[in-house]
Specification:
The structure is a homodimer of 152-residue chains. Chain A has a single domain, classed as Arc Repressor Mutant, subunit A (Orthogonal Bundle), CATH 1.10.10.10. In chain A, a hairpin with a 2-residue loop joins strand 1 (85-90) and strand 2 (93-101). Chain A is mainly alpha-helical and 152 residues long. The first copy, chain A, contains seven helices and two strands. In chain A, helix 6 packs across helix 7 (129-149). Chain A has a two-stranded antiparallel sheet. The N and C termini of chain A lie far apart (36 Å). Chain A is globular, with a radius of gyration of 18 Å.
Chain lengths: 152, 152
């Protein structure tokens, strides 16, 4: 069977995840550009996706997003220049820094969360609530398995 | 609930796909670097993933990968310079061009397919064959729904 044919009738995990990732990116770019967030790219959004509104440590963002700490550091520098986050001393450990979203960062985060929730509601309605719940449950296990195999 | 807490206990579709995508990228980078394919990045791999061994048209790669045709064109230029593909006249339409993998391109494609198949076998064994089959089936429907909503 041709690869293109196989990708169509029985796509592998890599093809499925990258196809969904790229569609979601496109939807988010459009939704966020309408709100003036066109300066940030997918790699910046991947950092903001893991920030707590109260602020997070770079190491936690790196661990949760499965990215290297240096990569997260560079993206945080860029997000700081663009006005989405600022670095503040961590009240619980004065030697550590927290990455805290600014008002602009909080706007982006809540808009992203709202767009994603809307997309998921549409999928769940179309697939069936029960089947979507099972899909997400398996997906969580797959993500967990893969990251257990790949220590950062 | 804090976002980081929610991402841990009930991650959304965007978090799950980007987490899995980034882990798979990391595994592939390591596996392919061992075979000397360290010059190509995730965006190049996303093009090679959709190429037929006999060659494919850029428009088909764009449609299947969910990327813009211009983006695919640029990546094909780069892959051509790196020796992974060449452009040839399409025998079925002399005005059109086919992107045909070179020997180096074919090596990369078969190595990638082998690594991904191995990962999927591991997941299926651990999750259970039946459950993994259902997961992939739902995933295909989710990917299809999302791309139906987003015409290129």
């Amino acid at each position: 069977m041709r690869r293109s044919e196989r990708n169509r009738v029985d796509p592998g995990l890599g093809v499925l995840t990258s196809r969904v990732t790229s569609t979601l990116q496109r939807v988010l770019i459009e939704a966020l550009a309408g709100d003036g967030h066109s300066q940030i790219g997918p790699r910046h959004r991947a950092v903001l996706a893991y920030l707590d509104t109260e602020g997070s440590r770079a190491i936690d963002v790196a661990r949760q997003s499965g990215q290297h700490k240096q990569v997260v550091g560079t993206l945080v520098d860029e997000l700081e220049q663009l006005g989405y986050v600022r670095r503040e001393p961590d009240p619980s450990d004065r030697r550590a820094k927290l990455i805290v979203p600014t008002e602009l960062g909080l706007q982006q985060m809540s808009k992203t969360d709202a767009v994603m929730a809307e997309i998921e509601r549409g999928i769940a309605a179309s697939l069936g609530e029960q089947q979507y719940r099972e899909f997400k449950q398996s997906f969580r296990r797959v993500a967990q398995m893969l990251s257990d195999d790949q220590p950062s």
